[in-house]
Amino acid sequence: MSIDYLDGNALAGPLGELFAVDLTVAVGTCAGCGNSGPVAGLRVYGPAPGLVGRCAGCEEVMVRLVRTPDAVWLDLRGTLSLRIPMPDDQQGG
Amino acid sequence: MAIVSRGFFGRRGEGDVKLPPGQYLTHDFPVLSAGPTPRIGLDRWEFTIDTELGETHRWSWADLMALPSETPTLDLHCVTKWSKLGTGWQGVSLDVLMEDVETAAEYALAYSYGGYTTNLPLEDLLDGKAWVAYKYDGDDLTPPHGGPARLLVPHLYLWKSAKWVRGIRLMNEDWPGFWETAGYHNYGDPWLEQRYQGD
Prior knowledge:
By secondary structure, chain A is mainly β. Chain A has one domain (about 5-85). Chain A is built from one helix and eight strands, in the order βαβββββββ. Chain A has one helix at about 10-15, and strands at about 5, 25-30, 35-40, 45, 50-55, 60-70, 70-75, 80-85. In chain A, the strands form two sheets. A five-stranded antiparallel beta sheet of chain A has the order 1-4-5-6-7, with no helix packed on it. In chain A, β4 and β5 (about 50-55) form a beta hairpin. By secondary structure, chain B is mainly beta. Chain B is globular. Chain B has a single domain, classed as Alpha-Beta Complex (Sulfite Oxidase, Chain A, domain 2). In chain B, about 35% of the residues are buried. Chains A and B meet through β6 and β7 of A and loops of B. Chain B: This is Molybdopterin-binding protein. Chain B: InterPro entries: OxRdtase_Mopterin-bd_dom (IPR000572), OxRdtase_Mopterin-bd_sf (IPR036374). Chain B: It comes from Acrocarpospora corrugata. Chain B: Pfam families: Oxidored_molyb (PF00174). Chain A: InterPro entries: DUF6510 (IPR045423).
């Protein structure tokens, strides 16, 4: 059977339009099965009608992103949490 | 010299066909997917209609095959802007499936193997406007195109024609489906170019 999805790096561009940090390196936890892994490891279907990122463990939807002419719709209800790496704020003084 | 070419109006059979606004004609059959393609064995396939009163009407594959079918020729319009005209299908009209279903519901939610959902007013499924289709172009409907059976509601954008359809829930309240909760229009009339919420 052919693979009909991309990996989560396909979300880098559309998410980069929204967020200042690279969310593909964030660790997402699936609200369906509790599996954790980098957003880049999601199975991404689309891009049309929208991008659908599914858990590599249980295939439930973790993120949906639809670009309309004047907005981005982002649905994260399938994501229990996102752990986003940030630089140590003590280092900045 | 004519300043308006024939091509401006197009030719019947190709360009003379009136397309909904913003659409272009395609001859292939693009496959768009929001998830892995379900593979459903006919021995475990079933289709149900659940009413707002909690009654369930259920058909096996053999039950579906035993119902009178129709062979409509339909124009398809995808929200991603391609249109495919004159496609040949075989399927069972929703009028046949709804014949013994008692309901006063105004809304329907189609749901699929794989978890997809899409909502529409019940009246858009009736009076010869919708089918559960299982053959395309004379052949069994393949899984990438929604086989073994898909909903066809050709007067709305194609996302309303749920692939791998498993059932229809009849409800008193409208319940937006998969794409309708993510920015797409709740109704999706291609002739009114209702692509996104607010259109």
